[in-house]
Amino acid sequence: VLRVTGTIEDGDSVRFSKALEAEEGINALRLNSPGGSVRDALDIGRAIRAAELDTVMGAVDVCFSACPYILAGGRERRVHPDAQVGVHQHYFGAKTVLPAFLAVESIQRGQGEVMTFLDDMGVDTLIMQHALSTPPDEIYILLQDELLSYRMATEVTE
């Protein structure tokens, strides 16, 4: 089991791929992250699925913001009942002031990419209702039955 912890930074998907190539015998990733770069999380999630790895979370682990996209990449996704998986609104691209029409276009394009990714991973895209209705400075913690019904977790287990 390879531990994946900390904030997801720009460029982490490249670093993750290199680390994964350097490791042998990995069959699962244990996640504990407050989130970060959505783009990198999507790329890491795709790499996890391509490598046919599982994702797991222990009792004290959190997976917030962009981290659930890494969790979704797992072939099997096992979450401890005391772990927390949370979603909220996020932005795509640089933190800059843009005209409203450009900002809306960027956000909508990004949300479309996220929904395509979730569907490709077998996660119900209705999970996005919680993300889209929760402000970026708050987190919606998914309940155990939501983790299972949206298929974000394939199993809630100790």
Secondary structure layout:
Blueprint (H helix, E strand, L loop, with lengths): L1 E4 L6 H11 L5 E5 L5 H13 L3 E4 L4 E3 L2 H6 L4 E3 L4 E4 L12 H21 L7 H5 L7 E2 L2 H6 L5 E2 L2
Parallel strand pairs: 1-2, 2-3, 3-5, 4-6, 5-8
Antiparallel strand pairs: 6-7
Helix pairs in contact: 1-2
Question: What does this molecule look like?
Answer:
With 158 residues, the protein is an alpha/beta fold. The protein is built from six helices and eight strands; from the N terminus they run E-H-E-H-E-E-H-E-E-H-H-E-H-E. The chain has helices spanning 12-22, 38-50, 67-72, 100-120, 128-132, 144-149; strands spanning 2-5, 28-32, 54-57, 62-64, 77-79, 84-87, 140-141, 155-156. It has a five-stranded parallel β-sheet with strand order 1-2-3-5-8. A three-stranded mixed β-sheet has the order 4-6-7. Helix 1 (12-22) packs parallel to helix 2.
Average pLDDT confidence is: 90
Q: Report helical residue fraction.
A: 25-40%
Q: Please state the structural category.
A: alpha/beta
> Segments where pLDDT lies below 50 for 5+ residues?
none
Quick one: overall form? globular
Strand content: 15-25%
Number of strands: 8
Q: Report strand order across the widest sheet.
A: 1-2-3-5-8
Order of helices and strands: EHEHEEHEEHHEHE
Count of helical regions:
6
Rg calculated over all Cα atoms? 15 Å
Largest sheet: 5 strands, parallel
Distance between the termini: 16 Å
